[in-house]
Write a structure and sequence with these properties.
- The protein is α+β, with helices and mostly antiparallel strands and 380 residues long.
- The protein folds into 4 domains: 82 residues, Beta Barrel (conserved putative lor/sdh protein from methanococcus maripaludis s2 fold); 108 residues, Beta Barrel (Elongation Factor Tu (Ef-tu), domain 3); 58 residues, RNA polymerase II/Efflux pump adaptor protein, barrel-sandwich hybrid domain (OB fold (Dihydrolipoamide Acetyltransferase, E2P), Beta Barrel); 74 residues, Helix Hairpins, CATH 1.10.287.
- Helices cover 24% and strands 38% of the residues.
- The strands form 4 sheets. A 6-stranded antiparallel β-barrel has the order 2-11-15-14-13-16. Strands 18-17-21-1-22 form a 5-stranded mixed beta sheet, with no helix packed on it.
- The relative contact order is 0.19.
C-alpha cells in the first residue's frame, strides 16, 4: 500500500478511537434544584402607642396689653422720666411725665374759694329760712317771705353743689398733670420731649405690659380636628380645654423654649390663606435660664392636640399605592395590607387601623413587588 495513503488512514482511525473512548467514559452530572435569591429588605416591628397629635405653626410675638400714652390735660412738659425712651422699663405707678401745673393749681385755689363762699351763703340762707319758718308759725312773716327764703336756700345749696363739683374737677386736672404708668412694662416708642407743648388727647408714646405676651398662630381648617376642641369653638377657650403650646426660638446656637396656652380662636377663616388664627398667651417670667421673650420676635410653635390611642407610627417610605403597606409574614414573604391613615406628618405617617403589634413592615423602597415574594428581612 502506498505510504501516502496509509499514514493518513491510521491517524484518522486513531482519532476516531480516542473520540469514541472519551464519549463512552464522560462523568455523570448530578442535577440540583434552582433556588431564587431572596431580596434583602429593611423592616420595622409594629408597636401601637398612645400619642398626642400636634400642630406646627409660627408667628410673631405681640404684647397682650398695649396702651397709648395720652395726656388728659394740656400744657408744657416740664419733666420726663429717664424711662420714657424706646425700650425703657417702668413699674406700675411710676411717673413718666409732668406737665406745668401752675394754671391748674390756680384753678383749684379759685374753686376752693368759690366753694368756701358758697358754703357761707348756703349756711346764711339755711339759717334765714329757719328763722322765717318760726316767724311764719307765729304769723309774723308772710307766705311770700317764706317762699322767697326757701328759694334763696335752694339756690345756695345748688351753688354749693356746683362749687364742690368744680373743686373735684380742678383737683383731678391738677393730678392729671402727672402721667403715671398703669402697669409694669416697657416703652415701645415715644414722641415727646422736654419743653414741648402737648394738648389733651394727643398721643405722646406707646407702652406695653410685661405680664403676658401673645402669638397669633395660623392653623389650617383641616387641622382643627386634631386640637380636640368642639367644632363650634370661637373666641375664648374654656380654661380646662386650652391646649398647651411650646414656643421656640434660636439665639445663636442656643434654642430657647417657652410654655403657654392656646387661649382663643378668632371668629372667621381668612379668605386668602384659608387659615383660622389661634392666639397663644405666654406668661413672662424672667430667670437665669430663659430670658423675657422680646416683642416682635418670629417664633416657631408646637400646639399639643388631642390624645389618640393604638396609633402606629411608620416612616413614609413604608407607604405604597392606595394606602397599602408591605407586611412580612413568618415565612419571610411579602403581602400587601390595606391600612387606615390618620395623619401624614413630615417624614412619618400615623396609622390608626390595619396593623397588629409584632408584625414586620417593610420600609425599603422597591420598584417591583409581587404578592408572596420571598425576602430576607433585616430589622432596623
Amino acid at each position: 500500500m502506498n505510504k501516502k495513503i496509509l499514514y493518513p488512514v491510521l491517524v484518522l482511525a486513531l482519532g476516531l478511537g480516542v473520540a469514541t473512548l472519551i464519549a463512552t467514559n464522560k462523568p455523570a452530572l448530578d442535577p440540583t434544584l434552582y433556588e431564587p435569591m431572596a431580596r434583602t429588605v429593611r423592616v420595622t416591628e409594629v408597636q401601637a402607642v398612645t400619642e398626642h397629635l400636634s400642630i406646627s405653626s409660627q408667628g410673631t410675638v405681640q404684647p397682650r396689653s398695649q396702651s397709648e400714652l395720652i395726656p388728659e390735660v394740656s400744657g408744657r412738659v416740664v419733666w420726663t422720666s429717664p424711662s420714657l425712651v424706646g425700650g425703657g422699663s417702668f413699674r406700675e405707678g411710676d411717673i413718666l411725665l409732668r406737665i406745668d401745673a401752675a394754671d391748674y393749681l390756680s384753678a383749684m385755689q379759685r374753686s376752693e374759694a368759690t366753694l368756701q363762699r358758697s358754703d357761707v351763703e348756703y349756711s346764711f340762707a339755711s339759717d334765714e329760712l329757719k328763722r322765717l319758718q318760726q316767724l311764719h308759725k307765729q304769723q309774723l312773716a308772710s307766705q311770700q317771705q317764706l317762699d322767697s327764703a326757701r328759694r334763696t336756700a335752694q339756690v345756695a345749696q345748688a351753688n354749693l353743689n356746683e362749687s364742690s363739683a368744680s373743686l373735684d374737677q380742678a383737683q383731678r386736672d391738677l393730678a392729671r398733670t402727672e402721667v403715671s404708668a398703669p402697669f409694669d412694662g416697657l416703652v415701645r416708642n415715644e414722641q415727646v420731649d422736654l419743653g414741648q407743648f402737648v394738648t389733651r388727647g394727643q398721643s405722646i408714646g406707646t407702652i406695653y405690659a410685661l405680664d403676658y405676651v401673645e402669638v397669633r398662630l395660623p392653623i389650617s381648617a383641616d387641622q382643627l380636628a386634631f386640637l380636640g376642641l368642639p367644632v363650634s369653638t370661637r373666641g375664648q377657650i374654656v380654661d380646662g380645654d386650652r391646649p398647651p403650646v411650646t414656643v421656640a426660638s434660636d439665639f445663636g446656637d442656643t434654642r430657647l423654649l417657652w410654655e403657654g396656652q392656646l387661649v382663643r380662636l378668632e371668629a372667621e377663616i381668612d379668605e386668602r390663606s384659608r387659615m383660622i388664627y389661634g392666639v397663644t398667651r405666654l406668661r413672662l417670667e424672667e430667670n437665669e435660664d430663659t430670658p423675657i421673650l422680646p416683642v416682635g420676635m418670629f417664633v416657631q410653635a408646637e400646639i399639643r392636640g388631642r390624645k389618640v390611642e393604638n396609633i402606629v407610627r411608620l416612616p413614609r417610605s413604608a407607604m405604597r399605592d392606595n394606602n397599602q403597606v408591605l407586611v412580612v409574614d413568618s415565612d419571610n414573604r411579602l403581602h400587601f395590607r390595606q391600612v387606615k391613615i390618620l395623619r401624614l406628618e413630615h417624614d412619618d405617617m400615623l396609622i390608626s387601623d390595619g396593623l397588629s403589634d409584632g408584625e414586620l413592615v417593610s420600609i425599603s423602597p422597591m420598584q417591583t413587588v409581587v404578592e408572596g415574594m420571598l425576602v430576607k428581612p433585616v430589622r432596623e
